[in-house]
Amino acid sequence: MRPRAFLAAPVLLAALLLAGCSVGRVADSPTLFDLGPDSAPTTGAPLPARVPIQLAYTAAPALNDSGVVWRVGESASPRSYATYRWSQPPATLVRERLIDRLSREGPVMADSAIPAAIQVQVTLMRFEQVFATDGQQSEGRIVLQAIAVQNRKVLGQVRVAHAVPAATQDAPGGVQALRRATDAAADEIAAWLARTLPPAAAPTRAAP
């Protein structure tokens, strides 16, 4: 059930294949995926502890659906695998992974917990498997936009885009590539915050 068939066969035949060839029978329950444990921990020296932040997170509307999305090149026609789904929408999975990663360097609070705190606004813009036009290779691609704001002043902004080659040209291969791309993107945002935000104040010692 590979999108390569869509590229080489008539559109109707490809649609039937991607639908799981379920004509005349009850479709099987879809296979569910998540991002699994963090497989790409930060390498090198640990980042300095940073100040607490509030995470304000949003995602493109399409990423609130649990379909495993693929497309050919930069086509404007995204599709979803019929028999594979995410256990939660990608918007939720990426948010959880981002909180886990950023929490290593300092507290991550709910949005609006402290009005004067530094707010990090993150938008998930893209999360999908992208095939070459010949169907012989694909990548898991993720794009995030992050802005750090304090008291209405922009401290910095960054656009993070990662593309990781898929080992196999199917849904499991795309999911594994997206896992690695997400971990790399979360590490990049953590490193950007370490450069952009002031470090956490050192604890004061009581006078002897």
UniProtKB/TrEMBL annotation:
UniProt keyword annotations, A-Z:
Signal
Domain ABC-type transport auxiliary lipoprotein component, residue spans = 52-190
Task: Identify the InterPro entries for this entry.
Answer: ABC_trans_aux
Pfam family example for this protein? Answer: ABC_trans_aux
Q: Could you say which residues form the signal peptide?
A: 1-27
Task: Tell me which domain of life the UniProt entry assigns to the organism this sequence originates from.
Answer: Bacteria
Q: What is this protein called?
A: ABC-type transport auxiliary lipoprotein component domain-containing protein
Native source species: Bordetella genomosp. 5
